[in-house]
Specification:
The structure holds two protein chains of two kinds.
Chain A lengths: L2 H15 L13 E2 L4 E4 L2 E5 L12 H14 L14 H13 L4 E5 L2 H12 L5 E5 L4 H10 L2 E5 L4 H11 L6 E6 L11 H10 L3 E5 L14 H4 L8 E5 L9 E5 L7 H4 L1 H4 L6 H15 L2 H21 L10 E6 L2 H13 L2 E2 L1 E3 L9 E6 L6 H18 L2
Helix pairs in contact in A: 2-11, 3-11, 4-5, 12-14, 13-14
Chain B lengths: L2 H17 L20 H15 L5 H4 L5 H15 L1
The chains are: A alpha/beta, B mainly alpha.
């Protein structure tokens, strides 16, 4: 099969699965009115698929900081951190992340995807092992591939399965990097961190925790699952993203291991890319302050999340195992998921559709992401629409 | 190939039978993707079952080159042999 034939096969598979004329993936958003509302086509819609957990994308402090940074430093750095792209703002944000986590040092990356790519490929190499949860994000899988290390999966959130694999490795468990996530993006469930830390210590491995979906969501000051469970000291490296609770784009890693800084000299995803723009860094710094002091935002986020989860659960939808801002509706077939997704959009509610093989266990997902900026009335309305659609989808 | 290999092949065929149509004849040369239509998600689930049964860990790196039933059985055989 030629290179282009392969792409034709992808197009044919998409065509077989998705109705003609429906832009399910990459739906064009014409105008954005607020953290929770936008226009698709000629319809005003409620955003219920963004990862804008704290609703900070229009926070006046962040907008002002970004505007000032553009005026002061221009639209982009046009260079990598290794060359001309390390501005005072990048270094300040790294210090602020380290202080936020009470860690020795921090590194900022251009995207959250690159943070995992850079950390995993920088820490592990040929001859080492990376032990990952089966439901890991693509950035974890891709970081593993880039590392050249041996990649071994354990069953999702199954610590006894993880331990079994560490045991089989024998002495090699000491050169093993374990990767887990604070909140998993597909089903919205949390990692059993206390058990993972206990096992990782027993086998002298290294643990990297990705707090992409848990930053701003869990913990008293919003650090994530490590703070929520009081286990920050048990985690070797914490990564995360700016593109969810912080409302911009970028990634970070913090650690108490002094070796973290050495990754700046060996990690290709850090070295060979342009650094984040001044506006991005400035708005992220402002957002990090709001996140840290965002107790009320977290209270509202969890109230909204529990309200919607309870309503959908009561309606009989099959959901992810625990309430949280990521509420996954699990459907048996792509056709059912597509009907639900389209039905919600027709009622002015925009959510994420996840089809096999991206969805776990061959199922399809309609994934809602709740924000602190949503109102209780909006959650009620969403619940009403789900109730109405249930009759036609499961008839 | 030793009896161990034949035993692995037999158990592997048993697991594959659960994932394929009842009239499908599975032989060592059977192509996992093109003939049995096993996608990457199903293959990874199958591998986890096999890992439990034979008390081994199969890396994703090694799986990338596997196409046929024989190649998968041989991979398991080699990992088991290394662990002895």
């Amino acid at each position: 099969m030629s290179l282009l034939d392969k792409l034709d096969a992808v197009a044919a598979a998409r065509k077989a699965l998705l109705p003609e004329g429906l832009e399910v993936f990459g739906t064009p958003i014409e105008e954005v009115y607020s953290a929770t509302e936008a226009r698709i086509g000629d319809r005003r819609i409620l955003f219920l698929g963004t990862n804008n957990y704290l609703g900070l994308t229009f926070a006046p402090e962040c907008l002002r900081a970004a505007h000032e940074a553009i005026d002061r430093e221009g639209t982009g750095t046009t260079g990598s951190r290794m060359a001309n792209g390390s501005y005072s703002g990048h270094r300040a944000l790294e210090r602020e992340f380290a202080e936020f986590y009470h860690c020795q040092s921090g590194i900022v990356f251009t995207t959250g995807y690159q943070a995992n790519l850079a950390m995993i490929s920088g820490l592990a190499g040929a001859g080492d092992v990376v032990l990952i949860d089966g439901d890991s994000h693509a950035s974890v899988y891709d970081g593993c591939r880039l590392s050249g290390a041996e990649i071994i999966r354990f069953r999702h959130n199954d610590v006894s399965d993880m331990e079994k694999r560490l045991k089989r490795l024998g002495e090699r468990s000491k050169s093993t990097l374990i990767v887990a996530e604070g909140i998993y993006s597909m089903l919205g469930d949390q990692a059993p961190l206390a058990e993972i830390v206990r096992v990782k210590n027993a086998y002298n491995s290294i643990l990297l925790l990705d707090e992409a979906h848990s930053l701003g969501v869990l913990g008293e000051t919003g650090q994530g699952l490590a703070e929520e469970t009081g286990l920050t000291d048990g985690v070797d490296f914490i990564t995360g993203t700016f593109s969810k609770s912080l409302g911009s784009i970028g990634g970070y890693c913090v650690s108490n291991h002094p070796q973290l800084d050495q990754l700046r000299y060996i990690s290709r995803p850090y070295i060979f890319t342009a650094s984040p723009s001044p506006a991005t860094i400035a708005s992220t710094r402002a957002a990090l302050k709001l996140l840290r002091d965002g107790t009320e935002l977290r209270r509202q986020l969890w109230q909204n999340s529990r309200q919607l989860y309870a309503r959908l659960d009561g309606l009989g939808y099959q959901l992810g195992p625990q309430p949280g801002p990521v509420i996954a509706n699990i459907l048996d077939s792509p056709q059912q998921a597509l009907m639900l997704w389209k039905g919600l959009l027709d009622h002015g509610i925009y959510v994420n559709l996840i089809l096999p093989p991206a969805a776990p266990e061959g199922k399809a997902l309609v994934r809602c992401s709740v924000s602190a900026a949503h109102t209780s009335e909006q959650m009620d309305h969403v619940g009403d629409v789900f109730a109405e659609l249930r009759k036609s989808i499961f008839q | 190939m030793s009896t161990d290999y034949n035993n692995i092949l037999s158990r592997l065929c048993f697991h594959l039978k659960q994932l394929s149509s009842p009239d499908m004849v599975i032989v060592p040369e059977t192509d996992l993707i093109n003939e049995l239509a096993i996608d990457s998600v199903k293959l990874l689930s199958l591998v986890m079952e096999i890992e439990d049964e034979f008390d081994i860990s199969v890396s994703l790196n090694a799986l990338a080159d596997i196409q046929t039933v024989h190649e998968l059985a041989n991979l398991i055989y080699q990992i088991k042999s290394q662990n002895k």
